[in-house]
Amino acid sequence: MPIIYHLIRRADWEAANSTGEVKPTSLEEEGFIHCSRDEEQLRAVARRLYSGIADMLVLEVDTELLASPLKYEPSRSGEIYPHIYGPLNTDGVVGVRAIESYG
């Protein structure tokens, strides 16, 4: 069960549960959903983009359960990130935790 991670606001996750799909603004604006491939990458993204935001959650996504295509692509810095090209189906999420849980 390969796992990737997606950061999401609590309210957006709660709304996604009623529709069965996570559709962040990046999906419409960039064509994909940003994810992290491991805990180290997740922590770096959280520090860089979400520092001080208390209502963030970490979604643990089983890549084998994704309904949309997954691609591993380089960012501007050259670091490889997983991108989901379509909505993230909520039944592909196998864990949810508060971002504070890993410090």
Question: What are the key terms here?
Answer:
103 residues; alpha+beta; ADP-ribosylation fold; three-stranded antiparallel sheet; 3 helices; 27% helix; 35% strand
Mean pLDDT: 92
Main sheet, how many strands, which sense, barrel?
Answer: 3 strands, antiparallel
N-to-C CA distance: 24 Å
**Which structural class should the secondary elements be placed in?**
alpha+beta
- Helical content class: 25-40%
| Rg computed from alpha carbons, rounded to a whole number of angstroms | 13 Å
Total domain modules: 1
Q: What name does the CATH topology carry?
A: ADP-ribosylation fold
Total strands: 8
Strand content: 25-35%
> Judging from the principal axes of the Cα atoms, what is the shape?
globular
Reading side by side through the largest sheet, how are the strands ordered? Answer: 1-4-8
The assigned CATH architecture is Alpha-Beta Barrel
Per CATH, the superfamily is Protein of unknown function DUF952
Which spans of ≥5 residues are poorly predicted at pLDDT below 50?
Answer: none
Task: Give the SSE order as H and E letters.
Answer: EHEHEHEEEEE
**Text of the CATH class:** Alpha Beta
Helix run count: 3
